[in-house]
Design a protein that fits this description.
Elements (H helix, E strand, L loop, with lengths): L1 E5 L2 E9 L8 E10 L9 E8 L6 E7 L11 E7 L4 H6 L4 H4 L19 H10 L11 H4 L3 E7 L7 H10 L2 E6 L16 E4 L2 H9 L4 E5 L10 E2 L1 H4 L4 H4 L7 E5 L5 H5 L2 H4 L2
Parallel strand pairs: 6-7, 7-8, 8-9, 9-10, 10-12, 11-12
Antiparallel strand pairs: 1-2, 2-3, 4-5, 5-6
């Protein structure tokens, strides 16, 4: 299938049938984009993926932002995964953010304590994309990607986009960090664990993941405590930026003290309360 975004760009979508995809039929194995706009290499972001969510088949986009002023991560590339058919706040309000956040118990639509301020970063990214200011990915962008480290899922779960996209991104970048809450999701691709920590909510989940030799990331409250093998996030304990730590690459067991403006929502979560 071929379609044009503007006179300078034609995108080719390789369409196939794969019953492993959530819509049970048509799937999009890969997207090859060709964009010849002269300024495409100057944009601070690119459209890395546009297609169905691997979690529920709804339309999503993955926008890779090159430069960041995030105080915790440092200047890493940031991958935002959001619905393409509505603004992030609207998706949350209508409880349609399963497309990009999956089964995460901390998403705003479920009254959770997710630290992401949806009205800020994700909304700005969505509005900028709607204005057509993020060119589609081409292989020419690899030179920029290869010079930087990337944070998978500044908003949204990496498991929502195809494994092939994540694989190429992490193979090309200088390094990566990532987290997924989709281990129990019926459409979860376990290969995502090659790049992501398992976001755990209880000691039991953490112990099971470690038994399976998987990295974990867990929020600890005053009602719970860290396990002996868990290391406190070095951004909290040492003031080290993520780009200088890089332990959250799917191999370490990390904990962090509950934080953020929605801290009370997190503390009231029944999953956390049970430990």
């Amino acid at each position: 299938m071929k379609y044009g975004r503007n006179k300078n760009e034609t995108r080719y979508m390789d369409r196939g049938i794969n019953s492993n995809y959530p819509n049970g039929g048509a799937s999009y194995r890969c997207i090859h984009s060709y964009n010849f706009e002269a300024n495409s290499m100057k944009s601070n972001g690119i459209e890395l993926y546009k297609g169905p969510s691997m979690l529920d088949g709804s339309p999503i986009i993955a926008i890779l932002i090159f430069k960041s002023m995030n105080a915790k991560t440092g200047d890493m590339m940031q991958l935002h995964i959001i619905r393409s058919d509505m603004a992030p706040l609207m998706a949350s309000k209508k409880k349609l953010d399963h497309a990009n956040c999956g089964n995460c118990p901390h998403k705003h639509s479920e009254g959770g304590g997710c630290y992401v301020n949806i009205g800020q970063g994700p909304t700005v990214v969505y509005k900028t994309w709607k204005l057509g200011k993020y060119p589609a990915y081409t292989s020419e962008h690899d030179s920029r990607i290869s010079a930087r480290k990337v944070r998978l899922g500044a908003y949204g779960d990496p498991a929502a986009i195809p494994y092939s996209i994540l694989k190429h991104l992490t193979d090309t970048a200088l390094g990566f960090t990532g987290y997924t809450h989709q281990l129990k999701h019926k459409n979860f691709d376990p290969r995502v664990l090659e790049f992501c920590q398992i976001s755990t909510d209880t000691e039991k989940q953490t112990l099971q993941a470690r038994k399976n030799k998987r990295g974990t990331f867990r929020v600890v409250t005053d009602k719970t405590q860290a396990l002996p093998f868990e290391t406190e996030c070095l951004a909290d304990s040492k003031g080290l930026e993520c780009r200088d730590c890089m332990k959250c690459d799917g191999t370490s067991n990390i904990f962090i003290l509950v934080h953020g403006s929605r801290k009370s929502n997190f503390l009231n979560n029944n999953i956390i309360a049970r430990g």
